[in-house]
Amino acid sequence: MLEVRGLSFSYGDFSVDDVCLEVGEGEILTLLGPNGSGKTTVLKSIYGLLRPRERCVFIDGKDCHSLPLRERARLVGYVPQSHHPPFPYTVLDVVVMGLASQLGVFESPKKEHYQKALEKLKLVGMVRFKDKPYTELSGGQLQLVLIARALVQEPRVLLLDEPTAHLDFKNQVRVLEIVKRLAGREGISAVMALHDPNLASMYSDRIALLKDGRIKAIGKPDEILREEILEDVYGVPVCVLEFNGLRIILPKTEVIQ
Ligand SMILES: Nc1ncnc2c1ncn2[C@@H]1O[C@H](COP(=O)(O)OP(=O)(O)OP(=O)(O)O)[C@@H](O)[C@H]1O
Ligand SMILES: [Mg+2]
């Protein structure tokens, strides 16, 4: 289980303050909040790309940031919000690189590693692109490859920063279904940042609403996705409809009265 105890980080003119989260085995926690509210900062701090002020990230009680990098890489997978491919590796090689922490320093990947990578590419529907340079993918295809790269490590904790941002309607659901399945069947704890409150409602066990670097509210989707709470966080009128037991969240505009 992932515990974040009082995470604080400052860029100077922006800070994340005292973020506390607990994500159980098999649980999906979604960070929701306006642009610039600190979602990416929180995820990067959990992963250790940013150094929070105190030691505050624990997995099964172990201080995650003091673990050797290789050990940490086995525990936590991270799918970044944006990524600029530096070199035209093939798609398959990029996914195999997700296994770097499981190889010896001078060890080359073997057949079984490529096999694992192919399985994950298949899972995200990208296996037919395996030999293509990943500098030549569309934004959504690149996102799917990065998800496969995080999955191939088979981490205990999966951090996903807007995993659906560049994806079409079908692939948004495909990726979130994969996360749900991994949580349900393999007990992975997932923390993801999303923008769409409807997808958050469908795929989260709990939601943390962030505003100005602080958690404004945290709880089950039906406790959090309420008109007055969303209006306060986003500063727009919101209407929440119930349909077949589902919550549908829409901005209140002249089109929807
Ligand atoms: N490298 C950086 N240096 C200085 N300030 C930064 C840096 N990265 C982000 N910030 C600032 O930190 C704040 C939070 O950014 P963050 O990327 O965490 O927001 P976010 O909630 O992920 O937003 P979005 O929904 O747009 O992805 C913003 O005001 C941003 O300008
Ligand atoms: Mg972000």
TrEMBL record:
It comes from the Archaea. Keywords: ATP-binding, Nucleotide-binding, Translocase, Transport. The keyword Amino-acid biosynthesis does not apply. PROSITE patterns: ABC_TRANSPORTER_1, ABC_TRANSPORTER_2. One of its GO terms (molecular function) is ATP hydrolysis activity. Residues 2-237 form the ABC transporter domain. SMART domains: AAA (SM00382). PANTHER family: HEMIN IMPORT ATP-BINDING PROTEIN HMUV. This is ABC transporter. It comes from Thermococcus piezophilus. The lineage of its organism: Archaea, Methanobacteriati, Methanobacteriota, Thermococci, Thermococcales.
